[in-house]
Write a structure and sequence with these properties.
Layout (H helix, E strand, L loop, with lengths): L1 H23 L13 E3 L14 E3 L6 H4 L6 E7 L5 H17 L6 E7 L18 E2 L6 H10 L4 H7 L8 E5 L5 E6 L3 H19 L10
């Protein structure tokens, strides 16, 4: 009986510890902010406190049709002027290549550029700009492209509070599966790209958790 008891303890104790961890463990990561205007829904508690589930956040409707075809998409979107200087284009391409290399085996992460001006026709022998991320024009039609640029204006106070001298087309955005902006970055800078990739991992970890369970955050 002693041997059976010892065997049961050796096999059963890890199971008990695992079940206790799964049911009692608490997420300890710092959740990413959600940018843009917010509106508290009627489901909020009467004492004035609210949970993210009770809040309607700004989103990008132009991406709805495309993103709804994918599950748990993480979108890295570079806002650019296709006619910008070659030096800026090269810096952005280098950082975009780093992102593509880090997440090349992750089907959740998609990376694109969205041009503010007309995409130039490729001439024979010429090099297409922004070769690392595909242009968003290949995903969206002209109407949705124009709508997306219009929708992005609502975030002006958010990015200008962080990067006062940076125009919109100098930004890189991190967008979650609900088409909400979760981060702003200077896509030509290495330290900003490092932060973008770390935030992308945080967003993926957020997706991995049960969506219906309300989690306490630090």
């Amino acid at each position: 009986m002693r041997k059976f008891g010892l065997l049961f303890l050796m096999l059963g104790l890890p199971v008990v510890i695992y079940l206790a961890y799964v049911n009692l463990a608490e997420n300890r990561y710092q959740s990413l902010p959600i940018w843009g205007p917010k509106k508290v829904l009627p489901t909020a508690l009467k004492n004035g406190t609210s949970h993210p589930d009770d809040t309607l956040y700004a989103s990008l409707p132009a991406l709805e049709k495309w993103m709804d075809r994918r599950s748990n998409t993480v979108l890295v979107l570079h806002l650019v002027l296709y006619r910008e200087a070659v030096s800026g284009r090269s810096l952005r391409d280098v950082q975009a290549a780093r992102i593509a290399d880090v997440f090349r085996n992750n089907p959740l992460v998609h990376q694109y550029t969205l041009g503010l001006d007309e995409y130039p026709h490729q001439e024979q022998g010429s090099i297409r700009p922004f070769q690392v991320p595909a242009p968003m024009e290949e995903v969206l039609d002209s109407v949705h492209k124009a709508q997306l640029w219009q929708d992005l204006r609502v975030y002006a106070p958010d990015w200008q509070s962080q990067f006062k001298q940076t125009p919109q087309e100098g930004l890189t955005l991190l967008i979650d599966r609900r088409r909400r902006v979760r981060g702003f970055y200077r896509g030509v800078l290495k330290d900003h790209t490092d932060r973008l990739m770390e935030d992308t991992r945080t967003l993926i970890a957020e997706y991995a958790n049960t969506p219906n369970r309300r989690r306490r955050r630090l």
